[in-house]
């Protein structure tokens, strides 16, 4: 970030107070920061404190004769390397989506020809409202980078997604937006599934597996770093949402299947999740232990998400990648799976205790995989899951760059 110029637009939310720390940390990384303070933002932080930390004039008024003489809003909007809106309120996001220009912040955003990134922060119900979701989707389609808010307790007393991410995480995400590295997946939409599914037996019990979600989350993050618009459909995990990724939380295989269909159309789908093949015919009440002995559980086959995404049709992704967790005859079973499912690639790995992977594959931080297509098998050496994800993302970018 050394030498990069950032125009920080501070929206009017309680999270605006974190903008002061953000300014300091951005400058610590070598960036210069000039600030636009909205009328709402000035209710939470003062122009004096913002100016003191940025060591730059603070701009607040579209019709300020002095500011327009010294630095017109057109020049202000175009001399930065990145326009960063943090916090981005629901109101400011809505103005951006429809192109309003009624104040300095919205006018600068409309007049710019430079990259724009936003970090939303608002009440959970406002974040989840269909209007906000539409507006965010519109901004993504316009090329605006969006950092997903985090989940947690809010100043209003509610709990859920909508909190401003931690400032160090924001700084790292901003740095990624400023990287000069190529973004070969820019403009591509990619669906990633990750984690386990939980299949209820009764209101207090469920069937699950040992998947941690680490490999799927690493794949989502690696794809986003290459510029893709990533939708991550995640089973239950405690992992944080990767920067720049839209996360949809589900619990069961049926919920995951529905979420995947809702995410279509996409250019590629990467099915990393360890989806339960069967679910139990669920009891509406807790199954009690009694003298009758062990209860009989009736199993029902779950939807086959990989096969459904691979099925020919208008919404079939151009590239469908499945994962196969095996404990024996890994390559043989993976070849059978690619033929059975109809996908383009299978990423197969040995998840047995005898695999030799340090720490074990399921729940561990390392992996050793085989990339299998209908015509070839390529075995990769053991590596960190993040490194496996980076290599896979680069392979996907190369595939999508080829003529149809």
Strand order of the largest sheet: 13-12-9-14-17-18-20-21
Rg (C-alpha, Å): 24 Å
Largest beta-sheet characterization: 8 strands, mixed
| Average of the residue pLDDT scores | 91
Reported CATH architecture of the largest domain:
3-Layer(aba) Sandwich
User: Quick one: how many beta strands?
Assistant: 22
CATH topology of the largest domain: Rossmann fold
By CATH, the superfamily of the largest domain comes out as CoaB-like
Q: Number of helical segments?
A: 14
Residue runs with pLDDT of under 50 for 5 or more positions: none
Shape: globular
What percent strand?
15-25%
Work out the helicity level.
Answer: 25-40%
**Count of separate structural domains:** 2
First and last CA, distance: 37 Å
Which structural class do the helices and strands define? Answer: alpha/beta
CATH class descriptor of the largest domain: Alpha Beta
Task: Describe this entry's structure for a reader.
The chain is α/β, with parallel strands linked by helices and 404 residues long. It has two domains: 5-178, Rossmann fold (3-Layer(aba) Sandwich), CATH 3.40.50; 189-401, Rossmann fold, CATH 3.40.50.10300. It contains 14 helices and 22 strands. The strands form six sheets. The protein has an eight-stranded mixed sheet with strand order 13-12-9-14-17-18-20-21, sandwiched between helices. Helix 10 (214-225) crosses helix 14. The protein is globular. The chain starts with a strand and ends with a helix. The model has no long low-confidence stretch (mean pLDDT 91).
